[in-house]
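Each record in this resource describes a single protein on a pair of labelled lines. The shape at a given residue is found from the number at the same position. The record below illustrates this layout:

***
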Amino acid sequence: MTMLSDKPAIEQLRWIMSRLRDPETGCPWDIKQTFSSISPHTIEEAYEVADAIESNDMMALKDELGDLLFQVVFYAQMAKEQGEFDFEDIVVGLNEKLMRRHPHVFAKQESLTDEQLEVQWQAIKAQERLQKDNAKQAQPLWHDIPKMLPALSRAQKIQKRASALGFDWPDYHGALDKVAEEVQEVSEALSVDPYSAHSAEELGDLLFATVNVARHAKHDPEQILRLACDKFVRRFERVEYTLRQQGLSLDSATLEEMDLAWEQVKKQQRS
């Protein structure tokens, strides 16, 4: 490592990665990894970055961003070994993409509203898709929206794509009315058979419609659901504490007693 002490940190990282993957002297675990085997780790690291941000833990964020960067360097090293591309190719491609997608910064200086930026962004991406389709064969409209995305995030991306094509409500009111419509359809399906495939389909439609409301209200559905989960966990922990103060436990308390404690905690948290 001393031989690289005068090199930039990113060069040191790339050297470390190449050593880890060395077939003769590297780490056995790193050597046997493939793109497919590393992919789940990448997803996990991305979520750990998001968790550090939502926890406002800057030290943890620094560490998690390092772990996420390591994933990129890992992929680059494997691709280099296969003669596909290397880390420099990734950075060059990223630089070109950033400049291409921000003409209001790099091509012509102009101030755009959030709405204008979104229209420009979707237009540029549509042009990129067209160029890719011409270079290959025509692809389905949604082909570049990964199916491996969390369902809420994928729903949001699909809706944005449809909106860019003009298929959208002008504001959240229409989307909210659709949620009310879907609630009614869910209620009807459940009343017939709550365990049927039809009930599941209607519940899926309701979730999809709810994502649309969040999108129109400029909220990320994945993030706000995580926050809702965190709020429920914190509140339920307080419910457990409240029950213990009354000489009860979650195992022994009735539903009515738990519900009463829940309302008490809600009132305390709002005051």
